[in-house]
Specification:
The structure is a single chain. It contains 1 helix and 10 strands, in the order E-E-E-E-E-E-E-E-E-E-H. The chain has one domain: Jelly Rolls (Sandwich). With 135 residues, it is mainly beta. The radius of gyration is 15 Å and the shape is globular. Strand 5 and strand 6 form a beta hairpin. A 5-stranded antiparallel sheet has the order 1-7-4-9-2, with no helix packed on it. The protein binds dTDP-4-keto-6-deoxyglucose. DTDP-4-keto-6-deoxyglucose (T46) binds next to strand 2, strand 3, strand 4 and strand 8. The site of dTDP-4-keto-6-deoxyglucose has 11 residues, from strand 2, strand 3, strand 4 and strand 8.
Amino acid sequence: MTLGRIISFEERGDDRGTLVALEENVDVPFDIRRVYYIYGTKAGVVRGKHAHRNLQQAVIAVSGSCRLLLDNGRERTEVVLDRPNQGLLLRSMTWREISDFSEDCVLVVLADRLYDPADYIRDYHEFQKAVAEGR
Ligand code: T46
């Protein structure tokens, strides 16, 4: 099972500045069914602390920066997101903890499914058990 993968988006820049356009199954490798964004996160806060059973997402720091701890039940890695032309692809069954939000951090998240609270695994031991059982 892979951990998060960084994808680079094409920048359509000219002398006015930069534009990035994201199309489903072109720039991100899935159907985009939902978009949400996170901003104004207070200092010291850790968001996430869950995994998804089925959801795939691409997380983009369109402003500022934050750190993601990723864990697939066997290995862990940390990724800093700080570029608006890069996205972090998060596959299902990846535990994530998001921290070190800069004051100006705006995270845009593209998701391949509608919001479903039942898709969340919020207990780390339950997550480990699900990985071990191949669920
Ligand atoms: C993830 C990380 C990166 C909704 O009503 N609809 C939605 O689509 C979402 C994502 C959330 N909500 C509600 C549920 C909570 O009442 O918004 C509130 C905050 O959500 P949550 O505590 O899940 O936020 P984070 O930042 O811990 O996690 C979110 C996503 O839920 C999650 O899928 O990967 O951002």
